[in-house]
Amino acid sequence: MNSPNFINFGGFEEVEHTADWAYRVWGQNLTDLFIQAAIALYTLADVELASESSIKRKIQLQGVDHVSLLVAWLNELLYLHESENLGFNQFEILHLDVHSLEAEVRGAHVQNWNKFIKAVTYHNLSIQQTEKGLEATLVLDV
């Protein structure tokens, strides 16, 4: 499979995985990478949000490194779907360092979540520096 084409922004693509579901995400920096990972999660799950007014949540997470924060970030978004039936389509990272993340997300109640995801895993997960930015491949437990 060819390397993704970086054109001054991030992105994602679904990749083959033997047992679960995986996707590769990339961005120019950590903020871009985290936002693209969230966008990809909702896109791949084929989520439809209700057209009601916007719901805003502030998310604050702690971790031991950027990898643990990336997993915690995505699992928190899954938790908000399971606990409050919320989905998000706007993401702003307010603070991100090696041990903490603070973000503000906006969205609405989920009208339809078409592909069930149990959790984001640590399976072979690392954040790699490439010549054009950062890249990670995430495996989803489905």
Automatic annotation (TrEMBL):
Transmembrane helix is among the record's keywords: no
A GO MF term: metal ion binding
Pfam family, one: Archease
Ranges for domain Archease: 12-142
Protein name as catalogued: Archease
Keyword tRNA processing set for record: yes
Keywords: Calcium, Metal-binding, tRNA processing
GO biological process, one term: tRNA processing
Family of the protein in this entry: Belongs to the archease family.
Membrane-spanning residues: none
